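Reply to dn_fold:

You asked what the input looked like. This is it:
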Amino acid sequence: MRRAPQPYADAFAHHRIDLAAPGAEAAIAAQLRDVGLVTLDGFTSRNAVLAFATRIMDAVPHRDSDSDGLTTIRDTRRHVHRAGFAGFGNGDLDPHTERSGTPHPPRLMLLVCGQTAVMGGESLLTDGQAVHSDLFTGSGRAAGAALAQPRTAFFGAGDGHATQVFTVHHGQRVSVRLRFDGLARWSPIVQPYLPYLRAAAIRHQVPLALAPGEAYLLDNERWLHGRRAFTGDRLCWRALGHPRFPMLRGFAPAQGVLLSPMVSEAG
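and this is what came back:
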């Protein structure tokens, strides 16, 4: 499959902010508003992860979180083939939004590496702005319009959420919401365009191999994340929550992408 040219050779270095630098937290907030992705390092323990997460977000408890609000991500060997639990195995993870089957997914996701895999396990990040632009321009324009039609997707189990891949908010800003696993159901309106969507999400993936103590923090309304399959005892800690600083909804569309008012909704 053709891959988009990578905009930078080292995604970690390109997005890194030094936590020890003066004004680091203000810089993190500004970069999240601008490009939606920050990379960090220096996390020496789970307590250090929790302390940082507490400063920048109000945690959102959920099914998989531990008592302190963090989620331990590792191969449990108990969740093979269970829809919605693929993160607790060792296989590939498709590009997805965290907590896509809830009415209001957490805005921020922090993932910190505690221990690397023996082989594989790299994070795969996709800028939703690039996918949106891909599907709203050129020959794929019909795909973008269809994927923005209200209530054309249902994500989650019986208590999931009827939604759409692209949602347009006030100010013509856009958010993305996506999953491809067994907890995704699709309207016939969008079924023909799913191959285009998957191809675009994979085409724009950026690999990120985290070392112990390294992390990424992303805007869950803009960036999709996935993972390569791995062997060994890979361990990560994840925090989900809403920012403790102002952020506009979604992201600004790429230059030249025009949105149709018919798919707009308040946000």
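The first helix runs from residue 11 to 15.
Hope that clears it up.
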